[in-house]
Design a protein that fits this description.
Layout (H helix, E strand, L loop, with lengths): L15 H6 L8 H17 L15 H5 L11 H12 L7 E5 L2 E2 L13 E5 H7 L1 H4 L9 H9 L4 E5 L9 E7 L4 E11 L4 E10 L3 E11 L4 E9 L5 E10 L4 E10 L2 E10 L5 E10 L4 E10 L5 E11 L3 E10 L7 E11 L4 E10 L5 E9 L3 H9 L4 H17 L5 H16 L4
Parallel strand pairs: 1-5, 4-6, 5-7, 6-8, 7-9, 8-10, 9-11, 10-12, 11-13, 12-14, 13-15, 14-16, 15-17, 16-18, 17-19
Antiparallel strand pairs: 1-2, 3-4
Helix pairs in contact: 2-7, 8-9, 9-10
Length: about 425
Amino acid sequence: MTMSAVLDFPVKPEARPYLDAFDKIASEPEWLTRERQRALTRFAELGFPTRKSESWRYLDLQPLQQKPLLPAEPNAGAQDSTRAQLAALQLPGSGPRLVLVDGRFSPELSRLGDLPNGVWFSSTQNAIAERDGLFRELTDDAAHPFAALNTAFFSDGFVLDIGAGVTLAQPLEIVHLASGHDASYHTRSLIHAGERSRATVLETYAGEGHYWRNDVVAVRLDTGAELTRAVLVEEAVQALHLAELDAKLGADARFSGLALLLGGATLRHEANINIAGEGAQCRLDGAFVVDRAEEVNIVTNVDHRVPHGETRELFKGVAADRAHGAFQGKIIVREHAQKVDAHQLSRNLILGGRAVIDTKPELEIYADDVKCSHGASVGELDETALFYLRSRGIPDAEARHMLVEGFLRDPVEEIADPRVRDYLLRRLTRRLEGLEA
């Protein structure tokens, strides 16, 4: 009997194939099976979000509703193709690296040695077996439909647990690769940083073929912890990529997040930040490049619940040809969150007459002793700057590319680690080489 047959309420039509595909995993603990079933029930109630939902108004999910992409079965032949993908990425350094192939941990492609005492870094499945108390927190966020679907179907992910006072000298890399065979990959991960710990994490998403990646990452920062998380998305040209970040910051914690979105047919990056401890600081930056008929949507929600918090957001986008980009950012300052300092800026470039970028920054303030601002702009390349470069003998196409790259570099340059920063700038330059500006 399928799960949809035992529910006592109408099931959303687009959810039925996923309910029919659900099957209990015998090797998993009972608490996780219950969580998966609860989440799938929630997804059956919610169904797919539509454009009527404010936070999903800029993405068209009709193709996915009409042709479901069900969770992938293990693909024994994926290692060979993804090995070539990994080599082509030319990732920086020789530090710890965890590789996921089609949503599952690949020990053959990973290297997890040379970690300092007090650091646990492995796959989500290993965490379920060895640290289920830490991992249970990951399954408690089924309020959003695709997070609920992720809870029901996640196959693996990564867990990074950093002990109090530990500093990681090298960036940790997590690489998500996809072999692509008309399926979906659901991954769920956790980064926990203990008191006064320090770390930099680089996550890369790449693949081949037609697939849907549905990724959820939870970040928990204890008092005084500092974490930099940089995300590079270079998915296949037919790929759908939906990613959700759920972060909670303790007192005096510092979180810096960068999203560099460079490839994929449809991309959505959502960041939900809970400023739960006094004196916590959050920096969110991002840049996207879309052309052809690609679409990208960046959604941020920063919730200041306590006094003396700080937020800085800078997002930049470039759209060419018939592409569509969108930024939706909201900063909430609760009634008792006095002395909050929060600023948000979205700047965008349109290349050509058919591309579109929508931007919607918002402030929702209930306290009276705060410093908050937001701004947004959408425009074209500066003709005066173009004329100046051409007058110095620089060809028109090269001049345009120089201006576009200069425009997009600012968010990336906020990354403090030079190895990660330089690597991301190289990937940005590579992407712009093929952009019709």
